[in-house]
Structure formats: structure tokens, C-alpha cells
Amino acid sequence: MFIYAKRVRVLNLQQGPNKSSSTPSVSPQTYIFIATELEGRPLFPALQKIIMQTAPDLTDEFAPIPLIFTSSVQDVTFQGQDLSNGLSVHYCLPLVGERLASLRRLALSSNEEDIEASTFDAILQLTNLESLDIQLPQAKDPIPEFLAKAGRALKKLSSLTIDLHFSSHEVPTVDVLLAKWKTCPPSQSTLRILAIRDHRNPLSFTNREYNDIAQLLDLMFPSLVSIKPYCEADEDKPYWKDHWWFIEHLRLSTVHVLPLAFF
């Protein structure tokens, strides 16, 4: 078995359509036996990508994690309805940071409402990330400052896709954010692509807000090449074609004036 395990590059641990959520696919005792046989060596030494689907009882679902989290893994996806479970937040994500030093791409997807704020703190510890995709549209308590913190902490990030919704009373106004960023040290973010979706209803911007948002994005992400709709199907939706497309147009058409010295 271990000979074939060396060939595994992608591991998909999603539940099948006929799998009972109350019965683990593999007995946890089996993982203990395998771990004993491996004597500290990784089960899949060449593994590059992991896809995991969380379930109501994560004790069984996460049993193989110590065996499969190896330094060769570059891409991890967590999806399902129990990302707020204590095992996910306090065990799994910290273990990602500890074991997966080469991790470049992380994706989280869930329709849960109760996502702990510490989930976002754990993500900020993954400083080698180049691509981050967070799809938590129903989360009640995302941290409004997360985007700014990600821009500072995840300096290698080049692609960011976020589906989060903040309570309006928690989010500083654009002019306040812009004023704050103008006084901050230059951002070291290397983010190049930002995918966005705006769910506000009604959706409206003042002329100043269009301009301020364009400036703010350039300050937060000085290497930003393009803003794009969350998916290709959104290109004709009002949030993009009537508003964010114009913000991107303003951002790209901004003339940066360099100081000149005359002698």
C-alpha cells in the first residue's frame, strides 16, 4: 500500500452521496495502525492537493489529518457545514500553519452563520499563501478589518476571492478608511487579482465614493493588476456593470504624477 501511496498527488475526502454521516468510512483505529507502521513518515510524501468536506462529527473526518498533512501539500480546500466546529478552528487550521510550510492556495467554503472570528486570525498566520478563496456568505461575524490585515500579513498573496458580508454598522466609511491608509506605511502586499461581489441592496455610490474606493484599493494593494467580478456569470449583473466596472476603470486610468526636480 505504501508503495502506491507515494504516487498520490491529489486526495479528495469529500463525502459521497450515499455515505451516512454517522458512520466513518474508515475506522479511526486503522489510522492509528498506519501511523504506527509509518514511524513518523508521511503517508503520502508527494501529496500536493487536499479537498476535505467537514461533517457534523469531525472526530472521524479529521482522524487522518496528522497522516496527510505533509510539507509537500500546496493546495487545501475545506468545505462543508461545520467549519465553525472547535476542531476546525482550534486544531485543523493551526495544524495547517504548522505542518504545511509550502501551502500556496487555501479555499474555505460554507453556508454556516456561526464562523468564529479566530478562523480569520488563523488564516493570517499562513504567510506563504499566494491564493486565498473565502466563500462564507452567511457568516455573521467576519472581521471588517480582515481585508486590510490580509493585505499586510499575506505579502505573497497574488489572488484573493472573498464572499463575506459585514454588518453596515461595523464597517468604517470609505473616506475614513482612505484617510487612515494615507497615513500608514506603504503596503507590502503583492496581490495582483481581486475578485469581488457586492450584495448590498439597494446598491449606490456617490461620485466621491467611486474615486475614494479606487484610491483605497491602490493603497492597500499597490501591485493590483485587475479587479474582476466574482465569477464570469456576474459580468452582466448590476453590481459589476453599473458600479465596480467603473471603479476599476477609474483605478486603471489614474495618472500617477512623479515629483520632478529642476536644477
Which structural class do you get from the secondary structure elements?
alpha/beta
Shape: elongated
How many discrete domains?
A: 1
Main beta sheet strand tally, sense and closure: 8 strands, parallel
How far the N terminus sits from the C terminus, by CA atoms, comes to: 76 Å
Mean pLDDT: 77
Radius of gyration: 21 Å
E-strand count: 8
* Oligomeric form: single chain
Spatial strand sequence of the major β-sheet: 1-2-3-4-5-6-7-8
Describe the fold and architecture.
There is one protein chain. The chain is 35% helix and 15% strand. With 263 residues, the protein is of the alpha/beta class. It has a single domain, classed as Leucine-rich repeat, LRR (right-handed beta-alpha superhelix) (Alpha-Beta Horseshoe). The chain has an eight-stranded parallel beta sheet. The protein starts with a helix and ends in a 10-residue tail after the last helix. The C terminus is likely disordered.
Topology at a glance:
Elements: H1 2-5, E1 10-13, H2 28-38, E2 49-54, H3 58-61, H4 65-68, E3 75-80, H5 86-99, E4 105-109, H6 117-123, E5 131-135, H7 146-153, E6 159-163, H8 174-182, E7 193-196, H9 207-220, E8 226-229, H10 238-253
Parallel strand pairs: 1-2, 2-3, 3-4, 4-5, 5-6, 6-7, 7-8
Helix pairs in contact: 5-6, 8-9, 9-10
InterPro entries: LRR_dom_sf
Question: Would you summarize the structure shown here?
Answer:
The protein is α/β, with parallel strands linked by helices. The chain contains ten helices and eight strands. The protein has an eight-stranded parallel sheet with strand order 1-2-3-4-5-6-7-8.
